[in-house]
């Protein structure tokens, strides 16, 4: 696993974008208590407010901006990578710098792009909590935070992908990448056949949140 990187040799495909709160995995009551990082975040926010470093209205606006994020920024980057090989190489080298080329704010936490190929399919998880490139692909879905997904995708990624409707051929290697507080991942899915000549704008519609997590494949 990258970040912690797990190789499970072979892959699966799926393409529907599960709405927030829906999907094969749902958080149970044990998932609800604050994680260490969530508790630390709240403590820091309380401290900043108490010391007057930030005003409540500023904090609210910042949270609203994060909550309003959608997968659009990530979709734009992937579509650009599909149509511009040089940009894709820059994206693979440094996601944040590549995002700035498109006037996209990817935040300050390092993000690593991982490319699906004919031989390899990548899937992202955060086994500790729900670390995730929110500024690029929006809020993490409930199933991403569920204990069932976080534990099972490490052990049996093909079975988990199949539950999403994603069948990966046996000759394709499946790699699971574990996000951390210091490093997040973004999957560059394979461009679907039959889209030759499509504009980047048209291709963006094929790139969903789930394809950039790796539980789905783009579908025409």
Q: What this model shows, in words?
A:
This protein is of the alpha/beta class and 220 residues long. It contains eleven helices and five strands. The strands form two sheets. Strands 1-4-3 form a three-stranded mixed β-sheet, with helices on one face. About 10% of the residues have low confidence.
Number of helices: 11
Structural class computed from helices and strand pairing: alpha/beta
Low-pLDDT sequence parts: 7-23, 27-31
Shape: globular
Largest sheet: 3 strands, mixed
First-residue to last-residue Cα separation: 30 Å
SSE string, helix = H, strand = E? EHHHHHEEHHHHEEHH
Q: How big is the Rg?
A: 18 Å
Widest sheet: strand order? 1-4-3
Structure, briefly:
By secondary structure, the chain is of the alpha/beta class. It has helices at residues 36-50, 56-67, 72-83, 85-93, 95-101, 134-137, 142-145, 147-155, 157-163, 200-204, 209-213; strands at 5-7, 111-115, 120-125, 173-178, 184-188.
